[in-house]
Amino acid sequence: MVPLIEVRDLRFRYPDGTEALTGVNFRLEERETVALFGPNGSGKTTFVLHLVGLLRGEGEIRVCGLSPEKDNLKTIRARVGVVFQDADVQLFMPTVLEDVAFGPLNLGLSEAEARRRAEEALERVGMAAAIGKAPYHLSAGEKRRVALAGVLAMEPEILVLDEPTTFLDPPGRAALTSLLRELPQAKLLVTHDVEFALTLARRAVFFERGRIVSDGPVADVARRHAWDAARLEDVSGAQPA
User: Fold this and answer.
1) pLDDT in tens, 27-63
2) Which segments of the chain does DSSP mark as H helices, in order?
3) pLDDT in the model for residue 226
4) Per-residue pLDDT reduced to its tens digit, 134-184
5) Per-residue pLDDT tens digits for 108-142
6) Which of 92, 102, 113, 233 is deepest in the core (most CB within 10 A)?
7) If DSSP codes are grouped into helix, strand and coil, which group holds residue 85?
8) 208-240: b or e for each residue (b if 16 or more CB lie within 10 Å)?
9) Which residue, among 70, 48, 1, has the nearest Cα to 207 in the 3D structure?
């Protein structure tokens, strides 16, 4: 079976000379959820940005069978939905409805179809009541849900979530976990939160100095690198749904 994402020997150096990726190899299979662990600056976000063509380095990348060349970017970005850590970078329209419908409209859908998708996505994330609100009036957790709705309205095959539990209180975190469990898409979770990863993913990779240095079961990878070890001992019995 062809993987949804296949990356071979990916390398990238920023203009200031910083070597951010030094030979990353990675595969994501259909319906698989993988946690991406690693310290800040280890290459996780740089790696994710390559998947949707926002950065371009050396090596081979295939996303849903396509390489992130210019002619393929629109298709890839429709198939890979990214929810960034700071939801404010994704929310810029006057109302929640307009924000969530923006992506479908850019796909060339009619206004009626874009509105239908937006309303369904907002209902799914529990934000239907906010449809006419201005995004800047929402709480951090509500903004995160609306940003996710904007991605779901595109009907992607892959979801990429960058530190999705940041700014969420315990009820918001639990609600997000429950929602993500129900979604059929393959997922990449860029996170420092081992407990969250354990509830959703069976596999994790660990980034260090621009490389993936471990790949295996979430708890094993976390223990190997003493990653949030105290929390891990409390939740090591957790299993993804």
Assistant:
1) 999 999 999 999 988 999 999 999 999 999 999 999 9
2) 44-51, 73-79, 96-106, 111-124, 140-152, 170-182, 194-200, 218-224, 229-235
3) 82
4) 988 888 888 888 999 999 999 999 999 998 888 778 887 888 888 899 899
5) 899 999 999 999 999 988 899 999 999 888 888 88
6) 102
7) coil
8) eebbbebeeebbebbeebebbeebbeeeeebee
9) 48
Comparing C-alpha atoms, which of 88, 114, 89 is closest to residue 100? 114
Whole-angstrom Cα distance, residue 211 to residue 41?
Answer: 11
CB 240 within 8 A of CB 187: no
Q: Which two tokens stand for residue 140?
A: 């951090």
Q: In angstroms, rounded to a whole number, what is the distance separating the alpha carbons of residues 191 and 85?
A: 10
| 3-state class (DSSP) for residue 136 | helix
Token representation of residue 30: 């259909």
The Cα–Cα gap between 202 and 182 comes to 16
Q: Which whole-number Å values give the CA distances from 178 to 84, 170, 201, 219, in the listed order?
A: 19, 12, 13, 20
Neighbours of 136 (CB within 10 A): 10
